[in-house]
Amino acid sequence: MKIVGLMSGTSYDGVDVVAAEFIRDGDTVTLCPLGHRSLDYPDDLRAEIGALLPPAATTIEAVCRLDNRLGEVFAEAAAAGVELAGGTADAVVSPGQTVFHSVEAGRVRGTLQLGAPARVAARVGVPVLHDLRSADVAAGGQGAPLVPAFDALLLDAAGGPRAALNLGGIANLTVVAPGAPVLGYDVGPANALLDAAARRFLDRPCDTDGVRAAAGRVHDGLLALLLAEPYYAAPPPKSTGKELFHGGYLDDRLAALGEPVAADDVLATLTELTARTVADACDRHGVTEVVAAGGGVRNPTLRGRLAALGEGRWRLRTTDELGVPAQAKEAYAFALLGWLSWHGLPGAIPSVTGASRAAVLGSWTPSGPPSAAAPPVAPLRLVVRPS
Hints:
By secondary structure, the chain is of the alpha/beta class. It is built from 13 helices and 14 strands.
């Protein structure tokens, strides 16, 4: 079965698109990567998304317009994915752009992703799976993170506790260990605050390769204020996003500090914040290896600091070594979630999200998949066939 997977994360810089073929053999499903691409958002679309995200106020008109514009962009991405698949695909997974994730007292009340899936289905002519988080939220879960379903099948816990780390706008961690339930949660910001600082101080979307952060020094006072955030001490299950870690959040901490901080020092401190919170989480779970993916792995300053903090306790590597391109891992993970939903299998893990039951994820447009010929049986392992 060939599936096109799309992903646009909390950094909202563009769409990662992949094509994958899945082959089932007993309790193993084989992922054959067929290719991936990244489509950058134009500057005006990034501005339109940013203007709608919390804590900004918005209107229903703005939400509607953005929903349809994103749908057109995702339709183009899906068409590119079908080309990567050789001209035909069975389904597209388009999780959309998250614009609000409502968390009250540790409980998710709702979640909203935009991207007009009907436009995607009309463009490529195959069923489109969308709104992947709501079923888990309805079951009492956080609706995030969802990638641990992929990680749990890919990582072998037999050799000791291992972690999968995604460094996107938010840092997500999945932990697998022998005889223990899968654990996964949002650790805190990865690129969210770094990108906010780059826009404020550098008038750029990001600090490319962490060059300016490498030139700065960690400001201990600012770091202490940032580490005092209650979210870090909250137990999982937990999830977060731009509703908490946005530009205004950084402005408030800088104002509370009461003294100016040089731009490079702010970036160095935010890099240390991400590295420290991730490393603390890895140490807490006693992992022996961390397999990283996401845009943050392309930041040598952040990656180097993580490796240094883990030295002697856990090894840092990337999913590229397992056959999954680090930049496209989440898109491949959503393609797998589409394969699971197509076969009537749950894609959310209750021990990760806190849901009362394992939910089959998403809604299908224009129609659902055909009934499975045999009762669905969950796979136990994912292997990657080199392309």
